[in-house]
């Protein structure tokens, strides 16, 4: 079946885990793709509309001011799945970032390298409208409504770019280790540390404000239940971030997070990324605590095969 027939016969549109266009792109080995906007079904737009409508009051109550300003700057349509070209038209002049469509999972080094180049790998499928709380993998609502509004803030954007640069530092450092077993051990530990730092900041971070704690982490900003739980639930542990704690703290993805870290500002976050790189160079990330997340072979190879660009 050629791609034209897929375009014409697909009744499910671009629904997560049920999109023939995405499956064909994966079979063709296409990681970076275009957004075939004509394939979105009315069901897909209904899912976006429901997600946006129920999140808006949560954002107004719990989200940090930078995110709220970003939502306004992007001019997202509450009724329709956004076109990435429209998102980028508003986003680019603010920070130089661009949403870049991908067919699915992107290996760790390539992901961080995209950040370094002010590109954000963006999923184009969307969850089903009758499963708004079920997110088997990132979708366009998580990526565009959760992540991208933060990319309109210059200080946050610079922290992301700086974090992407750390991946090159890691690749350069391990390339100098001649023994393969030692090289793989150190790299596995570094990737684990970077993933934990990303999780506890970019995905699930809290920030102080004059109005108390607010959410800036995209995993929280795209979750109707967890955004409130993060701020209000008495059982959640909320602590000022300490780098040595965050990089050694395992996490699980299949339930609400019991532990969250607080930054003071995005300048603070940028400084933490600087510190992360300094510790990397000093060998302090070579033996972080075991536990989740795991590091798969594809992520390892993406670093081992990396060349500075």
Outline the structure in words.
It is a single chain. This protein is an alpha/beta fold. Helices cover 52% and strands 9% of the residues. The protein is built from 14 helices and 6 strands. It has helices at residues 3-9, 20-27, 42-62, 65-74, 84-95, 108-116, 140-147, 154-175, 180-203, 218-221, 224-232, 243-246, 266-281, 297-304, and strands spanning 98-102, 119-123, 206-209, 212-215, 237-240, 259-263. The strands form 2 sheets. The protein has a 4-stranded mixed sheet. A two-stranded parallel sheet has the order 1-2. Strand 1 (98-102), helix 6 (108-116) and strand 2 form a beta-alpha-beta unit. Helix 6 (108-116) crosses helix 8 (154-175), helix 8 (154-175) packs parallel to helix 13 and helix 9 (180-203) packs across helix 14 (297-304). The chain starts with a helix and ends in a 5-residue tail after the last helix.
């Amino acid at each position: 079946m050629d791609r034209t027939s897929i375009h014409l016969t697909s009744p499910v549109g671009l629904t997560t885990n049920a999109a023939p266009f995405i499956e064909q792109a994966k079979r063709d080995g296409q990681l970076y793709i275009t957004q075939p906007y004509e394939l979105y079904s009315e069901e897909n737009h209904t899912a976006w509309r429901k997600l946006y409508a129920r999140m808006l009051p949560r954002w107004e109550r719990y989200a940090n001011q930078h995110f709220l300003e970003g939502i306004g700057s992007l001019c997202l349509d509450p009724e329709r799945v956004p076109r990435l070209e429209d998102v980028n038209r508003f986003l680019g002049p603010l920070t130089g970032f661009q949403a870049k469509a991908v067919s699915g999972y992107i290996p760790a080094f390539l992901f961080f390298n995209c950040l370094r180049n002010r590109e954000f790998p963006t999923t184009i499928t969307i969850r089903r409208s009758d499963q708004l709380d079920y997110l088997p993998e990132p979708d366009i609502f998580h990526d565009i409504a959760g992540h991208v509004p933060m990319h309109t803030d210059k200080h946050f954007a610079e922290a992301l770019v700086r974090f992407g640069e750390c991946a090159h530092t890691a690749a350069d450092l391990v390339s100098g280790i001649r023994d393969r077993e030692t090289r793989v051990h150190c790299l596995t530990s570094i990737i684990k540390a970077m993933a934990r730092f990303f999780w506890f900041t970019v995905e699930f971070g809290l920030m102080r404000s004059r109005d108390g704690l607010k959410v800036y982490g995209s995993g929280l900003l795209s979750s109707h239940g967890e955004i409130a739980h993060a701020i209000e639930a008495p059982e959640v542990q909320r602590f000022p971030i300490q780098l040595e704690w965050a990089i050694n703290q395992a996490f699980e993805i299949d339930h609400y997070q019991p532990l969250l870290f607080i930054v003071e500002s995005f300048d603070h976050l940028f400084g933490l990324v600087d510190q992360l790189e300094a510790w990397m160079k000093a060998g302090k990330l070579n033996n972080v605590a075991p536990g989740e997340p795991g590091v798969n072979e594809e992520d390892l190879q993406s670093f081992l095969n990396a060349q500075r660009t």
